[in-house]
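Something for you to look into today, if you have time. I want to see for myself how the chain folds. Leave the record below and I will have a look.
***
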Amino acid sequence: MRRLLTSSLFVLLPSLLFGQTAQAPQSARQALIDMFFGSSADHLEKHLPDATRKTLKKLDTGEGQSMLAQISMFSAMAKAGGANLQTFETGPVLLSVDQPQRGGADHVEITVERDDLMGEEDQLELALHITKNGKEESLPFIPRFTFSMKSEANVWRLNEISVTVRLPLADPEFLKTIENKQRAQNEQMTIWSLRTVNGAEKGYAKTNGGYACTLSALGKKGANTQVLWDAQLISGKKGGYIYAISSCDASHYKIVAEPAVADSGQRAFCSDEGGTIRAAKDGKATSCLSGGEIIQEDHQTGLGAIAAGTDSPRAGATVTYSEAPTKASSASAPQLPPVNATASVAKPSRIRVSQGVMAGMIERKVEPQYPAEANVQGEVVLSLVINKTGDVESVKLISGHPLLAPAAIDAVKQWKYRPFKLNGEPVVVETTATVVFNLSGQ
């Protein structure tokens, strides 16, 4: 009994003298967590080698803040991101983050795949896992992060970080994931391309009095003729699909997109002058045309809709007076419908007219100068006010790349329209204009 009491006193004496119990040494894993998510002022600095700390302190950003302080700031931002973040000093999971998202939640885990302690050195291999709506995401590659820690003066210091990427090229599940993602991207691009062709056909019909029966005709350069700028679409091959216009005359056309590889598992897509886009699961254009599933509906009705000013089914896109559209003749350009005298008692001083109608009234079209510093392509959509004499009075940007917008605005300001007349008198018009930039057309 006396020996037991003596042993107990030796154990309790440090806590009685210093008011605290002796703490176990920090593990390399705990040090790694402390380094990135600790709360002390030096939580990052103390886990770096002396030589590293001295070098980082010398590197000033020019604003009086060292690189070390910047790294520490990033870790503080990670902790304050608003997500539910947890760290674990033991077990298979090192870090768990729950981030609420619209329509579900994202869950991120960093797991410990390997923890090799060899004396004063330890290597921790970590893996990233992302779960969305309860299902783990298959990444296009599998990353691994290895943190090499070394104990110096009883403190674990981070000596090296290595990143390896594994591509399981023979894994059927991995290959299926890659295939599904690429298929989805190809199909989305194809839908967008069909909409582009439909828009180009409308512009062509306004100028030429009927639809173009080939993609090359839509892309033919000349005075007021080029309405399709995508070189790949003009060639008929884009994004793993083959495009063709068929069943075409001045008043009707069909556009189809069929997978270039028959057994790719991709759907075929088709549309016509009405603008509705359909799809066929068997990948055949004929199936799409005969009974394809509607995936995007458009309430346009061919040339009659163009004559009536219907640019798209969104609100405010049509002429603000009403009258049943007259059927356009294939031998002449579509005519504007007569004004219904009962539509409005007061004579409007300004009306809104669709882009399709006003495109057919352009007398002078100045092409934009491609910015020398830009290396992008795309559409710039502008809002215009055209005065009674047909001059562009004001231009405002609706959407488009900031490097392309100034060139588009400068060009459109120089456009000249025929005066738009209502009841025989010219009126001020509000409309939109789309300027297309294509890298191949520089």
Q: What stands out?
A: The chain has a mean pLDDT of 76. Residues 149 and 158 are 5 Å apart (CA to CA).
